[in-house]
Amino acid sequence: MSNATTTADDATDAGHGHHAHPSFLQHHFDTPAQQYDAAKLGMWVFIATEILMFGGLFVAYLIYHALEPALFKLAHHALDKKLGALNTVVLLFSSLTAALAVRGAQRGKRNETSMWLVITIACAAIFLVVKYFEYSHKIHLGLLPGRCFGHPGFDKCFGEAGAATTPLALSVTEHGTLLQLPTRANMFFALYFMMTGLHGVHVIVGMSLLTWVLIKNIKGHFSPEYFTHVDLGALYWHLVDLVWIYLFPLLYLVS
Amino acid sequence: MSAVDVPVTGHANDHGDPHVNYLKAKSGIGSWLYTLDHKRIGILYLAMVSLAFLAGGIFALLLRFELFTRGKTIVDAETYNRFFTLHGAIMVFLFIIPSVPAALGNFCLPIMLGAKDVAFPRLNMWSFYIYLIGAGISLYSIINGAVDTGWTFYTPYSASPTKNYVWAMTFGVFVLGFSSILTGLNFLVTTHTMRAPGVTWRRLPLFVWGMYATAIIQVLATPVLAITVLLLGMERVFGLGVFDPRLGGDPVLFQHFFWFYSHPAVYIMIVPGMAIVSEIIATFTRRAIVGYFAIAMSSLSLALLGFLVWGHHMFTAGMSEFSTMLFSALTFLVAIPSGVKVFNWTTTLYKGDVWLTTPMLYALSFIFLFSIGGLTGLFLGSLSVDIHLHDTYYVVAHFHYVMMGGTVMGFIGGLFYWWPKITGKLYNESIAKVGWFLVFVGFNVTFISQFIMGSRGMPRRYYDYLPQFEPFHKASTIGSWILGLGMLIEAYALLSAVFSGKKSPPNPWGSAGYEWNTATPPVLANFVETPVITRGPYDYHLATPEELFDGFPEDAPKK
Question: So what's the ipTM on this one?
């Protein structure tokens, strides 16, 4: 296998800077196309794992919804449909701006790419702020998961005594209607907090990822030949958006 | 092939000369701790999974010793519960799942594809460190009083407030899952994008096919385990209630979720073992493996079927009759791809030029023991029989015949087979064969007695037993000692080869496999230049005599 001329030639060429070897190409790849394909496939496979992870929660939701459809319908009125819809619009718009950022990178327009990335990140921040108001309102009312249900502000549901706490029936007036929620409604809120919570973590991860891409873009790491990070960051952001597209009707629009 | 064809290969870099033996290209502790080289990461994994195997093995010997006599032998019942939990959890999550893919797969897969490394070397390193973190968290749980729930962590027992360190163990499992996902992701992408010219899908070594099928399961099943243990953790912190009947939840849902991962995980364990056996059988019969494509596809169908049969762990847990029948019928389908493999291997042996080296003895043991493990599985898949055998020693013996008699035999066989490739040294064949004999005999003595006990009603996980089971428990414990001794001898055979073994020729087995086509041990970049493959890995009729020569090049007969 050994080829004496090749080895001798390379021995003198120590370090980087080989001809026909773009600086962004890692050593173990033969061509930029191979490197790009690998990265893209890797992100798709990772997205598949994310969908299966959320899949467990969707299955749990379907089972408990099938067991008590009337209760889920009653409990879902406690969620704020307007804020949910606002967040849906914000995320959908951010998916568009993420796609436009990729288009900017493809055409080598660095400033344009940066602008779209900033708008996408800002949308993510708006989403989280809205979510924060929703969560704190629920916590304030005691619309909490599991044994904490009916304990406003997580009252007496942690620590030594917490283990013995049981959920309490709750009457709340939301959007002008009085909702009388039995203790069993805890399951709806368990699923609400798990699903939107895990999604929220993904929003934060997506934001960090896009910020990192933005910094790289400002530093001028990308070109029309090499914009893998922008592409993959946007792909991940579409996943975050997609999951919400399913969460919104399942949780906010039960019928 | 000339250097002009492949201008980017053979490119020297800052991280060591790519054309020097990978063990010598760099030196110092740092060169191992921060390595991105798939071969070194494979060795780091090998060291860690071997330690985990040792720890799990010690717990196995301890719990077998406790069962030597009725009543208390060495420890009380509480401690015994911890022993079997730790034996199971360590063996499954820290040893057997990462064993073949992360250690041998990492080492061999890129070389078999003619690639310089896996697609994401940095992710590969992270996978190892995530494994270490997960192992550390599990160790924390063990030191602080351990876990006595069994490795399956069934709710509601595992979620009860007194089980303080279950969260640590399950969090460790959560972290270990990410390590497994990253390995799987890397192998999938590497197989798709990093194949050298000429390595077509139909020329892929069967080991790669096995790793590919395993990677699919790792990537698709492990996230479900992640969400399951996350829900279990939330159950403890917030009293979430999804698995708690007092809050309207369903503990059986935990079992469904758990087995939706853990049944496919059985195939994460066994398919790599089968993958190794396919390589060993082809090399030591000196012929093209019979039914190459059927074996490759059977790995994929095992990966697919593995997702459809989780319910057979729960026949007695309260499912509808219709579901149990459906799961039972689907379970029998698993026999088809398993049978395809066993029949093709045995057909390859027929009129093959069989060379009984240590790896070959392990491969033959695999076929023999896996057949017993597989056939006894059919009894467990039958609904009426399972009602009698569920949660007895019969089940314990069945899955040990598959996991230990299958995967571990394959793993040790693979270690001996690739040991010259990894270390550049030859092991002592006589010592290794003595070790194999003790392992084989010890294993059968340990677990055949468990089949008999189980079929007569001895429940698993019990601390004490009735007088009529005493002879079987004694035999099983004595068998475990023989097995343990055999394992120690094998460890000695492997380690002594590293320090005092003879130098290995480039292709000590005269194999046509691609991985023997480069230097032994491989150079840092695996190949001096990207190879162009013109034949399949089992095409003994197309390989040149030089390629198949099993001595040193200087001793080769001149043309």
Answer: 0.90
